Task: structure prediction
Amino acid sequence: MGEGRSSARAYAIGLPTSQGSTRERYNTGENALMRLILVRHGQTDWNREYRVQGQADPPLNESGKAQAEAIARALKDEPVEAIYSSPLSRAFETARAIDESHHIGIARIDALKELNVGDLDGIPYPDIKSRSPDFFRVWST
Result:
């Protein structure tokens, strides 16, 4: 997992906006569309150290906080009607940065938590194969 994978990112799913504003294009009666923006949380120390996070709850590090602020700036002028987040602090802190310019609140959804990996939380990724070969086989496919 390189530096690029550990940064907050947003992905939008929807139509291009060349035919009118985003809000106009997505609110058109029976042909209405919804655009979904997926944002990855900012970096934690465990991301940087290539450790399994699972449902452990390391907070954003300074780089992760800067990433959350950067993605919040990028989404500042986007029409956002709802923000959903895992209750884990790394995701919620990233969502909170986005909500600072939208003021719509954040719904914490338990189902958005990371996979529960039990006693693998906190171990370095390279050690997964030797610690739990069965999990590694399923996880890496």
User: Anything to note?
Assistant: Strands lie at 10-13, 36-39, 84-85, 107-108. Confidence is low (pLDDT under 50) at residues 1-6, 13-23. The radius of gyration is 18 Å.
